[in-house]
Amino acid sequence: MADLDARDVPVDPTSQERLSASRLEYRVVDLSDPAQLRGFARADARGFLDKEPDDETIRVMGEMMSGRRNIGVYAPGADLPVATVDSWVTPMTVPGDAGAHLDMWAISIVTVAATHRRRGIARNLLEGELRAAASAGVPIAGLTATEATIYGRYGFGPAIPVSRVRVDARRAGGVTLPAADGATTVEYLEPEALLAALGEVHERARLDRPGDIPGWPLRWRRMAGLVPGDERSRAVRGVRAVDADGGTRGVLAYTLDELPDEFGADFAIRHLDAETPEALRALWAFAVNHDLIRTVHADLRPIDDPLPWLVANQRAVQTTVHDHGWLRILDVPAVLGARSYRAPLDLVLRVSDPLGLAEGSWRLRVGQDGKGVIDVTTDAPDVELGVDALSSLYLGGVSAPTLRAAGRISASAETAAAIQNAFGTAAAPALTIWY
Ligand SMILES: CC(C)(COP(=O)(O)OP(=O)(O)OC[C@H]1O[C@@H](n2cnc3c(N)ncnc32)[C@H](O)[C@@H]1OP(=O)(O)O)[C@@H](O)C(=O)NCCC(=O)NCCS
After folding, report:
1. Which residues line ligand 1 (CB under 6 A)?
2. Which of the ends of the chain has fewer CB neighbours closer than 10 A, N or C?
């Protein structure tokens, strides 16, 4: 886990001053005060179009938020904030040896009350988070977004695309497993065992998946159907994939959503995580080969998920690729030095940044060992790009030739190809959770 606790980082004085000019108080929320906790939880629910949280929901939200740095924007004398944001420092896996990671400033619960929108409050929240993270020495920020149009202006780039998949189970022709997979079995789990398996498998599997981050207890409880007030909770079922030694190597939490007017259901995957290809295949086979199923749905799958190659009929698998993990580099040398590369490289990058945090020119040299050495330089650049584009390229999930073709980076075709060879990864980056 990260050494730095975001709760120790003071609020950003610039955003504080700017918002106070509009008679709004920007401050850290004290969740030990029941009135402040209630107001923060209610503002969160309102911002994300949820119903009013009951006492139990507020208590559970308080548990999760207590490990985070929660900021509210308040009109004078109010307990219910007009805007919210929270953040924590978390490891994010980067390309390299298993467990290679970078500390990331994760940002969540960005809401502004409908009565206070479009007057610059979100800008102050986001810029405040980025300045605070940079001042604390955190080299990168990340988030997942409700809309793809909000965060580019602050220097975030979509970096971890994922697939939403829909399998027509009746046309798919089933998943046929290789004979060698015979030692892997699938077993049902009781809810508490499902909860434990979700956390354990994710904690191991994420270490091999650039872009992924740890989950947290409330997330796994929600996936396992153990959060009070979740109407679908009693519909949640879970299974695990077990290897020849009895070890849990994969886990699947799902619901079966009954179809009207026929005896059948849609199989909705809440979370699917696997450490080995055998476990992943076994869990896909469990879902797609399940009796009485019309469709199988899942989201947040890596874009190179083998599913289309597992079924007899690839046309039964529809995949929609969409943006999911957004990154925002704050310290160029720190992030470029933290990952490994797949090919040697020697080039000068000139990075522009609307907030000035990551602005500059650096030479990146990658040797045969795949390690990068980064130096400040005044040499002419080989590539000029915004911090958002560099953030998109960082994990190899977005192609440099594609960004060049889109006019998002300025470089020769040869330079873009060289960046792609070095930054590309064997497996697509992945982020298997929302935050
Ligand atoms: C998205 C949201 C936080 C924006 O808050 P806001 O205070 O109205 O935003 P600001 O007034 O600071 O706007 C800053 C910039 O973002 C733009 N913007 C704001 N909301 C936007 C949206 N939904 N889509 C596209 N652009 C948006 C503004 O036009 C402005 O652009 P500019 O600086 O280039 O002129 C707010 O609408 C909200 O709470 N939405 C519901 C919850 C949600 O979706 N949160 C995001 C979670 S990932």
Report:
1. 47-48, 110-112, 117-123, 145-147, 149-150, 153
2. N
Task: Tell me the pLDDT tens digit for each residue of 375-427.
Answer: 999 999 999 999 999 999 999 999 999 999 999 999 999 999 999 999 999 99
| Residue 239, domain extent | 163-322
Question: What's the rounded Cα separation, in Å, for the pair 313 and 310?
Answer: 9
Which of 111, 126, 155 delimits the end of a domain? Answer: 155
147 is in an annotated binding site: yes
Kindly state whether residues 253 and 119 are assigned to the same domain. no
* Sign of the dihedral through C-alpha 74, 78, 80, 86: positive
Place of tokens 């420092």: 89
The sheet that has 383-386: what strands, in order across it?
372-376, 360-366, 345-352, 383-386, 409-410
What element of type H or E holds 413?
helix 413-423
Kindly report the CATH number assigned to the domain that includes residue 209.
3.40.630.30
Total domains, the chain: 3
CATH number at residue 354: 3.30.1050.10
Residues 127 and 271 in one domain: no
Q: Whose CA is nearest to atom 15 of ligand 1?
A: 123
Helix (H) / strand (E) containing 6: none
Supply the residues annotated as catalytic: 151, 435
What whole-number distance in Å separates Cα of residue 132 and Cα of residue 155? 15
Give the domain-ending residue among 279, 297, 322: 322
Q: Is the pLDDT of residue 1 over 60?
A: no
